[in-house]
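New to this. Help decode the following:
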Amino acid sequence: MKPIRPKTPRYGVPLSTCSSQDSDSVKMATTAHWRAVGRRFAAGRGRGVVADIEPRYLQRDRHSSPRNRHWSHGCAGRLGRERGRGYLAASITPWRSMMVPSSAFLAVRGAGIAHASAARALRWATTLWFLVTVAGQLVFAAYIVALYGGALLRGHSGQWNTVMTHGHVDGDPAGNAATIAHVLVAALVMCSGALQLVPRLRARAPAFHRWNGRFYLGAAVVAGVTGIYMVWWRGAVGDVVQHLGTSLNGVVVVACAALALQRIVAGDVAAHRRWALRLFLAVGGVWFFRVGLMFWLALNRGPAGFDADTFRGPFLSFLAFAQFLLPLAVLELYLYCRARGGAFRQWGMAFVMSGLALATGAGVVVATAGMWLPHM
């Protein structure tokens, strides 16, 4: 039995005029199609329409039976609230439509709910990690201001040498100025970067976001360049491998800042946000080094994999590169799972972020108690 062609707009057929005697192959194809629709819409690629179906294929179902209307509202309401409420996108071609089997709607409903739950869990786990990280960075910034800024105001810059090799060198004003610029800018960057990543602040205060972003990019570049200078020309603990890792971190900071600026100037907001996230993690490399080191010490109940007196060893050489490469790798995995991953991958990423939040929190607590608070 062929579907009756109704007198309605060109693209769209009310359910009540469609035939329900579809072949098994068509039903299977339609079910698979709707499963894909559910997956793609839940991934966030269906704003405005259901998945990637054109709006011209959507027609409000005003003439269908209560049962069919329930199916239509159930599918579209689950997938898109106000965007798709009351619409049924079941067109196989622009000129012919068919009634979608109930199994297809169940597949869409199950896929949509599963993906929505996974996306929500990933969002909560990421938010937890972000809050823990920001709290730890604020404590670190307060430690920098209290130790270095306090000693500078009191005129006792030599106290820097208690926690930094060659922090203050008599007769080297240029090097001392670079040290001051590095540590104080680092404290400001910790506070400024966190504000840039708050979505509500970006939406409600766009002017502040732009000016704070300009300051953040400039301060990040200053911190990266002065950090490289201090490693090679002022002297630092550790071996050459650690110095290479720290220098590469500074280069990555400058590169991420330049690319974030280039993308926003070009009008590519999505790419700008991705590079801003990479910059946030790269700038926090020295903070991740300290938190990771303290977590490692707490886990092993003492130094393991390095000599505490010379501050050299395989673990510290690994940490010099992992302090920024590991967070960047996790970010790329997160971006992939959020954009293209299914429910299983998003749940897995949510567990990873939850574990990282716990590990970061433990490292922050140990670093605060053993490294930062005693000098504040």
Observations:
- DSSP finds eleven helices and four strands in the chain.
- Confidence is low (pLDDT under 50) at residues 1-30, 45-102.
- The CA atoms of residues 60 and 87 lie 5 Å apart.
- The beta strands are 59-60, 87-88, 91-93, 96-97.
